[in-house]
Amino acid sequence: MTAVEPALLGRVARRAAPRSSHADWEPAPDRADPVELLEAQGATRVQELLPIRYGRMLATPFAFYRGAAAIMAADLADTPTSGIRTQLVGDAHLSNFGAFAAPDRSLVFDVNDFDETLPGPWEWDLKRLVASCAVAGRDRGLDERERRQVARAAARSYREAMREFAGMRAIDVWYLRLDVDDLIQRRRSHVSRQRLESTQRAVAKARAKDNLKAFAKLTHVVDGERRFRSDPPLLVPIRDLLADGDDRDLEGELRSLLRDYRRSLAPHRRRLLDRYRPIDFAHKLVGVGSVGNRAWVVMLLGPGAGDPLFLQVKEARPSVLEPYAGAARSRTHGRRIVEGQQLMQAASDILLGHLRVSSRLDGETRDFYVRQLWDGKASAEIELMDPRTMRVYAEICGWTLARAHARSGEPAAIAAYAGGGDKLDRALAEFGERYADQNERDHAALASAARDGRITAGPALR
Q1: Rounded Cα gap, residues 35 and 27, in angstroms
Q2: Is 417 in contact with 82 (CB distance < 8 Å)?
Q3: The overall pTM is greater than 0.85
């Protein structure tokens, strides 16, 4: 394929899916019941944790949106697409971007959740991001004009970045990343002094959120041994999960999992992991949409008592996009997530890995992926953003999503389709408002199901 052909492909794609068509959203007459979709997801999860998931989703329409990736995936499948595909995040809303420590220990900003990653139409990710601007803007009390400005900022930033990437060498795109310190310096004149100071405090807090912080906050000494604290259901040590008289070697099974995980790492990183020995395990509640999936945390110690390492072992379920975008090619869903993350992120966790296990506890085969629990991670406080700050943040997320797509897709084709004007931006902002209406109806449907006793919604338990 010559350099001209991708651009031609993008322009031709406008005939099948005009850019203005992306404004359309109308629920299909046979649209699936949103509560049924959530219940279907819950069927394979830890049942006693589902009330917490529903409780978290009911908190606000934006909290609902964060947990409703499966609902929107079904909806997006019926929307127009250009036919141009790339690796997708699969759940690209405003809260799934954030800061974390790169391997060189600099804080970088990037996409930080890849549970649903899969190849598919690039528009699906961008529509989920833009709609999240409208949903979050309503939660913050922004009026419609302000919300559309935020949504258009995200779309415009994506479109303009993709045009820039189309003119770059592929290897140069892969080297691009957003360093948090540089980002703050470039954007400091675009936000209020109060918001800038708040951001700087959040960055300082993120730098301190490391293994030593987890060591102090999540563990204590029991009979001379360092162990996880018990804070059910948020954090439940392995010793509390077995009933009296239950002699199953659950800890032995988890140690076996770590050996399987080790094999997924590059040889030089196995050497690093071998410096640590597992000390304790616990089940930890995580996220909104992920609540009910099995998620373990592992405490390991290095050669010295002050050298802890914490790993999160999180269940990897099939992507919500699979029924609509096609089955994953990776042999396991843990590997799908790891490969998608490494493909889209500019800098990934050095201990990112995966495993598959056939549990002797219930006979089920499950996939997991593994990463460091706390490694300079920080999320934007969207619930505190004013319109100006949210607009700037949306621009940053739009650029970041474009960079992630450009690493695996064909930026020239997407850029040619999107064009140099704002037609696509305006269409997507309109879609965002319409879908925010739909999200509110779905949120109300879940609330009705809770009132009617169809589902049990408990406290959110942060």
Answers
A1: 15
A2: yes
A3: yes
